[in-house]
Amino acid sequence: MKKKLGLVTSIVLAASLALTACGGGADTQNQAGSGASGGEKPKRIALIMRQNVGTFSAQYINGVKQEVEKNGGELTVFNADTDLSKMASNLDAAVNQNFDGILIDHGTAEALQQGTQKAVDKKIPVVLFDTDIKLPGVPVVEQDDNKLAELSLEKLAADTGGKGNIVKIWVAGFAPMEKRQVTYEAFLKKYPDIKEIAAFGSATNNTALDTQAQMEAILKKYPNKGDITAVWASWDEFAKGATRAIQQAGRTEIKVYGIDLSDEDLQLIQEPNSPWAATAAVDPSNIGRIHAQTVFQKIKGEQVPDSVKLNPVLVKQEDLPKDKKVTMGDLSQYVPEWGK
């Protein structure tokens, strides 16, 4: 891919990193598309990310990249490394540089409402993903977060007979997390014999490792078999950390129920005696493609609904074959609803 040069006057770009690099640290990454047809100037698309952590994000970015290239565009990724003020600055930079379209991933209204309004005022199409900004004509692509939580929690209840002690791993401050928490609170009321005995969670650049350390401490606090029945992890980075801690402690009677899915997650779920029993998810590559597709529809002046909601699927360990490793690419052979 040829790199697009000379984009930046107001911020420093780290353009040498590959787009699919995970975890970031770079403010931006450039990728050029295959070129617009008929000699048209390629459309410049900015992807404003709160953070780029884990394989889910990598697969989401790859989906965005594929769709931008399909439309002959050029993509620049701005990664804020979890810093909302930096994310707001990145959005302002994209607006000032007059990008043809802007994608926002996991922002907040408090940090980005003003910058988004500025883009709208300049007639730059903006499309959100899992972001709580509400502006007329600014579509939101979102997973059905209440359904994601419901699918994973109901599987937990079914497997435990509606009773037991559970650990919740969750973090505030993200629009999808707040929606999942609403469903979780309703779940505890529905199943009064399921008790939350511990709750923790934080979003960092090393979320899975930090979660693993925190889960190890919980396991030491509750050392006996039966003390903990299950873990509900509201994000796959949380589920990865919890799964590894449980495996290393030899406590695989504790089952993990998660949200989101990637190839790395699938490998963990398929390991012998893995405690990760099920996860509810939408294909992250499809999310990226639909997010980018929607901004190109806006650029072309097509009518787009203000809400584009993607339906999740429950992927259960028991549905996967024992004699081969399944990847995201062939998951639909075993979970027919996957990728639709």
TrEMBL record:
Residues 45-303 form the Periplasmic binding protein domain. GO terms for cellular component: outer membrane-bounded periplasmic space. CDD domains: PBP1_methylthioribose_binding-like. Its main location: other. It comes from the Bacteria. It is found in: Cell envelope. InterPro entries: Bact_Solute-Bind_Prot2, Peripla_BP_I, SBP_2_dom. PROSITE patterns: PROKAR_LIPOPROTEIN. One of its GO terms (molecular function) is carbohydrate binding. Residues 1-21 form the signal peptide. Keywords: Signal. Pfam families: Peripla_BP_4. PANTHER family: ABC TRANSPORTER PERIPLASMIC-BINDING PROTEIN YPHF, D-XYLOSE-BINDING PERIPLASMIC PROTEIN. Belongs to the bacterial solute-binding protein 2 family. This is LacI family transcriptional regulator. It comes from Brevibacillus gelatini. The lineage of its organism: Bacteria, Bacillati, Bacillota, Bacilli, Bacillales.
